[in-house]
Design a protein that fits this description.
The complex is a heterotrimer of chains A (227), B (138) and C (148). Chain A is of the alpha/beta class. Chain A is built from seven helices and ten strands. Chain A is globular and about 45 Å long. Classes of the chains: A alpha/beta (227), B alpha+beta (138), C alpha+beta (148). Chains B and C meet through helix 1, helix 3 and strand 2 of B and helix 1, helix 2 and strand 2 of C.
């Protein structure tokens, strides 16, 4: 039985988002037909919320809410799944210049997995860094689809994936409630826990899914003439 | 507009399509005391010297336009805008068409407030400015 | 954080500004610049019958009030001149024509992140606007982005 998760989301715990987790889940329920998600993974900026407990919300909405982190490295931004006490002790998640290779290898050794996100984005994506520096070792997957991508960025990610044979994920990178689930990842297996997620991310048995609507003409638009 | 009982999560505001001219941008900059002489909000050349693609709208003006979407929706009814948070992701250039969208994302019956996602897109549907508004109803 | 700063900068308070009048003419020009047509902001007769009993400024007028001329000399800077990265504004009470508005500000937070345009240091300044009756009109968190 497959599982569809938005692997890249930011709640009000991230400094540039005001989206409550409950509002995210409510929006997914409202838009279930267009975005058939089974849950979300919270990837807050430069932090990991050890004590956050979303079981009440999971029960209320019948969805999965898992916790991960988005950190910043010398090869760009990366999502860390399976964060535990060892990793929190080992790395300063607020450091914007973490050593990417060390992060990838140590997180794997400690039982987690690192997935570079928005690799096609200037300055903070793998694509640009790979043009000037040696590629990283032991990268299993990168984020192919990111809901916040600008023109050309997902295309550059696709090129990187084709060149290096990475597995590919998708995530909305939402900072607004209404943008949750626009991009997601469909897993072949059933996923209920963070351990399930980490195990499945290592297998490569998943694909990015795109729920972004095709652009329609703006209805009832009002044009304000300049004065 | 409507009262608190009539609005629903998922309701849309707008969309509002705007063409903001360079003169309008300069007029706004003057209300901030920044409209005299060349600068990033008034002159393409001065803006390029700062590494910008050309003249840009002040962030405050984008905040004003997002707020306008909400206050237009409120109209003269017994509700008021109590909070607006914005993030300026991409510089907004005048002499372009932008579209402002809004969605009601939450209703809180305890304090009779609604939360609204608001954002400004360019002609290629890229989000230039994003924000969240709170409206309180009497 | 790779960029160093003096921790004493946090909560550093700037001088309260001299009162600035919210003139009716300035509000009118502000409305014109934004294409505002809402009668609560533009039509005296209609506004008298509205919830505020008279014309009020659009809420976003609050962000046009500036800190004193020494503010930008003294606000913490890291590298090049800062850009407005965003604001979080709480609109507490409407600004009316004739109000005399003061600002008091302090440094709320400094943090670092990386983005499409490279490394950035954010300085968050919290400002409170009050009128001549010492009533709070708005609280504004300004996020200034600096490039170190």
């Amino acid at each position: 039985m497959s599982t569809i998760l938005d692997l890249h989301t930011h709640s009000e715990a991230s400094e540039d988002s005001r989206a409550p987790v409950e509002a995210y889940l409510n929006w997914i329920k409202l838009r279930q037909a267009e975005r058939p998600l089974d849950g979300i993974v919270l990837t807050e900026h430069r932090q990991f919320n050890r004590d956050a407990d979303y079981r009440r919300l999971e029960d209320k909405f019948g969805m999965i809410v898992l916790r991960a982190s988005e950190v910043e490295t010398d090869y760009g931004h990366m999502l860390v799944f399976g964060v535990n006490d060892d990793m929190v002790a080992r790395f300063d998640f607020a450091d914007v210049r973490l050593d990417a290779q060390t992060l990838i290898d140590e997180v794997a050794r400690m039982g987690g997995i690192v997935v570079p996100c928005h690799p096609g984005r200037p300055n903070i994506g793998l694509y640009e860094h790979y043009q000037a520096r040696p590629p990283l070792e032991n990268v299993v997957a990168v984020e192919a689809l990111n809901g916040g991508s600008r023109k050309g960025e997902d295309e550059r990610s696709a090129e990187l994936i084709a060149r290096h044979g990475f597995a590919a994920t998708g995530g909305s990178d939402s900072h607004l409630v209404s943008l949750i689930g626009l991009c997601a990842t469909r897993f072949a297996a059933s996923i209920k826990t963070i351990d399930d997620l980490v195990r499945e991310l290592k297998t490569g048995s998943y694909e990015p899914v795109d729920f972004r609507p095709r652009r329609k003409p703006v209805p009832h638009a009002v044009v304000i003439e300049s004065r | 507009m409507n009262n608190f009982e009539e609005i629903n999560i998922g309701d849309t505001l707008g969309p509002l399509e705007l063409f903001v001219s360079k003169d309008q941008c300069r007029a706004y900059a003057r209300t901030m005391g920044m409209g005299e002489g060349p600068g990033r909000f008034t002159d393409d050349e001065a803006a390029r010297k700062e590494g910008l693609p050309g003249m840009i709208l002040p962030g405050n003006m984008s905040l004003g336009l997002l707020s306008k979407l909400v206050t237009d929706w409120i109209g003269s009814s017994n509700a008021w805008l109590t909070r607006m948070s914005t993030t300026y992701r991409v510089p907004v250039q005048p002499d372009h068409t932008v579209t402002i969208h809004g969605f009601i994302t939450n209703k809180n019956p305890e304090d009779r407030t609604a939360e609204i996602d608001v954002w400004m897109e360019n002609e290629e549907a890229e989000r230039l400015v994003t924000g969240t508004a709170t409206v309180r109803f009497r | 954080m790779t960029v160093k700063y003096d921790p004493a900068l946090i909560n550093r308070v700037f001088e309260v500004t001299e009162p600035v009048e919210a003139k009716a003419e300035t509000i009118k020009r502000f409305c014109a610049a934004l294409g505002e047509t809402n009668p609560l902001f533009t039509d005296e007769e209609a506004a008298k019958k509205g919830p505020y009993g008279g014309i009020v400024a659009p809420p976003s007028f609050a962000v046009t009030f500036r800190n004193g001329r020494h503010f930008f000399e003294n606000v913490p800077r890291f590298g090049m001149r800062g850009f407005d990265a965003g604001k979080d504004v709480e609109f507490v009470a409407p600004i009316r024509p004739g109000d005399r508005v003061t600002l008091s500000s302090h440094v709320k937070e400094i943090y670092e992140k990386t983005g499409r345009t490279g490394a950035m240091v954010f300085v968050v300044i919290r400002s409170t606007l009050k009128n001549q009756n010492d009533e709070v009109l708005a609280h504004i968190d300004h996020r200034f982005m600096n490039r170190p």
